């Protein structure tokens, strides 16, 4: 896929993911990194290289155990699993760095995709071990060129690694699932109650 | 420019570490822009921000049962705003973009059409500011800026905001001259930029000015109202505007007012605009009965005026520091009981008046005054 088409597909995926998340009734605020002014809320720096990375989508959850907690999401609008495995491990490294830099605003990390990936190790996707692997693979951006696997393993904070693992969500969407949300009529009742203090 | 200040406030709001705090500041900045455009509006905050389906703010107007949801939008891209209008247009909301919507970007024309068709207003601080700026030189433009949030439609960016304000101020001046061509152009812009209810109301103002300037109601070039008289809710709209000191305007729109109608009109009298309305039309307001009640010093909300017109106990009244004078067209309309104490005679009233600074209307006859019941409480 050419770069521009990939960019458009990525943006479309982020927009669809935002709409689906908003449809769950458990999101109160959300923004994309393509929104002017919002990107800096989703952007961090690799410690050694200084280059930036950013998440595609972020916001605030509402209700129950997630009330007022913040999420950041990486969205992959792909129709094949090709390349998703290494991308996911890179994303895990990004989550670790983001949490290390500002743990207070990184309550949840969501990986949202329309295609399964790493199916042979599906149950391992949200484990500290895979986060360690991701960090080790990105060690040059974190610790500098020439750093070894041992350097990376020694640098990793196991407590933080476990904490990040607890923050991980993997969400696999489908077009049908995007429609399997609260109806417009029921949403209208909830919103009317919440925003105007009554029923429509 | 006010919009530049808004932009700076956004930058400051976004500089904080925690986006949740940033959002609260951004919403407060948006509300200030809204209240500047329309001082009559009441705003309810919701917990939502930039949500696909839920509004950030709910706008209401006292004395008017209109409610409008306002959705803040962080991306001014016309293609995304088009999707929002497509999704939300049936609720006729306001989409308030934090950045100005660029008319050169792909999708602008399509957005503009769908927003106008669905009575959805897509605007920004830059659009509202463009309208508000015109108020400095042409106070009458605040009628349009106040109506915009309630019934504006289409994309009102900086250029369109200027266009609306220009058309309205030129239309007002044309109506003052009963000039059909320029008035018609203003009426067209009003029809294009406002939903039916708001365009009817703004058209009523122009028509009232037109008729007050000697034009015939039937020759008014805009959407014509048979009665050519402003209804009470239109007066309520005017009186709730910010201080609007344009004696010509108030004189033109108030020529058909009567004391009886003012007495039963449910409007805000604490506004300076109520004083302008009455003062501008004292020459056509006829009262045949007056009852004066004296009282101790009182604080009243006439902005330090010694006398202020007000509505009290279902009557039009002139309130001073030590008295309130209730006026009516007929004695049957007097709803204020006379105190038991002996009042003074009409002759005594005239004698005191002659020795005071009060200027009496020359048409006031001694006999008429003699019918007034004057008393002290």
From TrEMBL, chain A:
Top-rank taxon: Bacteria
Protein name, UniProt field: Uncharacterized protein
């Amino acid at each position: 896929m050419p770069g521009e088409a990939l960019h458009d597909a990525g943006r479309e995926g982020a927009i669809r993911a935002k709409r689906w998340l908003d449809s769950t009734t458990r999101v109160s605020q959300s923004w994309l990194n393509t929104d002017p002014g919002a990107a800096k809320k989703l952007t961090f720096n690799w410690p050694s290289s200084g280059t930036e990375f950013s998440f595609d989508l972020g916001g605030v959850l509402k209700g129950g155990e997630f009330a007022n907690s913040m999420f950041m999401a990486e969205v992959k609008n792909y129709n094949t699993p090709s390349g998703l495995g290494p991308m996911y491990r890179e994303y895990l490294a990004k989550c670790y760095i983001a949490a290390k830099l500002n743990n207070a605003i990184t309550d949840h990390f969501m990986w949202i995709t329309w295609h399964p990936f790493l199916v042979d190790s599906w149950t391992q996707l949200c484990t500290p071990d895979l986060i360690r692997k991701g960090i080790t693979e990105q060690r040059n951006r974190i610790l500098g060129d020439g750093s070894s696997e041992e350097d990376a393993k020694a640098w990793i904070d196991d407590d933080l690694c476990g904490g990040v693992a607890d923050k991980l969500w993997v969400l696999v969407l489908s077009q049908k699932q995007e429609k399997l949300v609260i109806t417009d009529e029921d949403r209208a009742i909830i919103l009317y109650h919440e925003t105007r203090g009554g029923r429509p | 420019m006010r919009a530049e200040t808004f932009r700076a406030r956004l930058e400051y709001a976004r500089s904080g570490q925690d986006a949740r705090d940033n959002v609260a500041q951004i919403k407060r900045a948006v509300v200030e822009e809204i209240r500047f455009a329309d001082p009559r509006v009441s705003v309810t905050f919701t917990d939502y921000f930039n949500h696909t389906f839920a509004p950030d703010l709910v706008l209401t107007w006292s004395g008017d049962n209109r409610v409008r949801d306002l959705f803040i939008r962080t991306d001014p891209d016309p293609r995304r705003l088009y999707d929002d209008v497509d999704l939300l247009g049936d609720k006729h909301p306001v989409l308030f973009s934090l950045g100005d919507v660029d008319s050169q970007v792909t999708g602008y024309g399509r957005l503009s059409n769908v927003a106008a068709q669905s009575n959805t207003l897509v605007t920004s601080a830059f659009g509202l500011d463009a309208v508000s700026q015109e108020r400095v030189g042409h106070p009458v433009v605040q009628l349009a800026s106040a109506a915009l949030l309630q019934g504006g439609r289409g994309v009102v960016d900086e250029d369109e905001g200027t266009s609306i304000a220009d058309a309205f101020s030129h239309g007002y001046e044309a109506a003052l001259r009963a000039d059909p061509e320029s008035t018609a152009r203003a009426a067209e812009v009003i029809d294009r930029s406002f939903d039916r209810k708001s365009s009817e109301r703004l058209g009523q103002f122009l028509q009232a000015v037109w008729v007050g300037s000697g034009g015939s109601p039937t020759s008014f070039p805009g959407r014509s109202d048979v009665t050519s008289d402003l209804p009470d809710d239109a007066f309520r709209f005017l009186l709730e505007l910010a201080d609007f000191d344009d004696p010509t305007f108030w004189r033109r729109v108030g020529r058909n007012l009567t004391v009886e109608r003012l007495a039963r009109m449910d409007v805000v009298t604490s506004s300076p605009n109520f004083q302008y309305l009455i003062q501008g039309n004292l020459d056509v307001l006829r009262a045949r009965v007056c009852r004066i009640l004296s009282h101790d010093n009182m604080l009243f909300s006439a902005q330090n005026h010694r006398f202020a017109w007000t509505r009290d106990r279902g009557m039009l009244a002139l309130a001073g520091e030590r008295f309130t004078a209730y006026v009516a067209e007929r004695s049957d309309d007097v709803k204020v009981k006379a105190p038991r104490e002996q009042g003074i005679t009409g002759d005594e009233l005239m004698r005191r008046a002659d020795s005071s600074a009060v200027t009496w209307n020359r048409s006031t006859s001694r006999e008429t005054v003699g019918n007034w019941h004057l008393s002290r409480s």
